[in-house]
Design a protein that fits this description.
Keywords: Coiled coil. By secondary structure, the chain is an all-alpha fold. It has one helix and no strands. The protein has one domain.
Length: 112
């Protein structure tokens, strides 16, 4: 009977060891699944962040292009205004020159 009890105890210990080993394998499997899930979530977050950064870059470049176009239009407008102003000044100077010359020269009708 003692031998049977020892045999039962040995079998019980083996079963406990097997159960413990199975629990450890299950724990490791869950840890691996959790690690993989965390990696997947991190990868999704990384991709979402990259997408957001790309959208911001595109928006920033579009804004920069719009600003450059606006500055170009303003510069062209200012240059045209300056050309028109220079033309007016030149025309006014020409009129004054003609008036000055006509006042200082003798009237051809009064020569005789």
């Amino acid at each position: 009977e003692r031998k049977v009890q020892q045999q039962c105890e040995i079998e019980r210990q083996k079963l406990n060891q097997q159960l413990q080993a199975e629990r450890e394998r299950e724990r490791q499997r869950r840890e691996e699944e959790r690690r993989v899930e965390i990696e997947r979530m991190n990868e999704e977050r990384r991709r979402a962040l990259e997408k957001l950064e790309e959208q911001r870059r595109i928006e920033r470049e579009a804004t920069e292009r719009e600003m450059a176009a606006m500055m170009h239009r303003l510069n062209e407008q200012k240059a045209e205004e300056l050309r028109q102003q220079a033309a007016r000044i030149q025309a006014e100077q020409a009129v004054r020159m003609i008036q000055s010359v006509s006042r200082s020269s003798p009237d051809p009708c009064n020569i005789m």
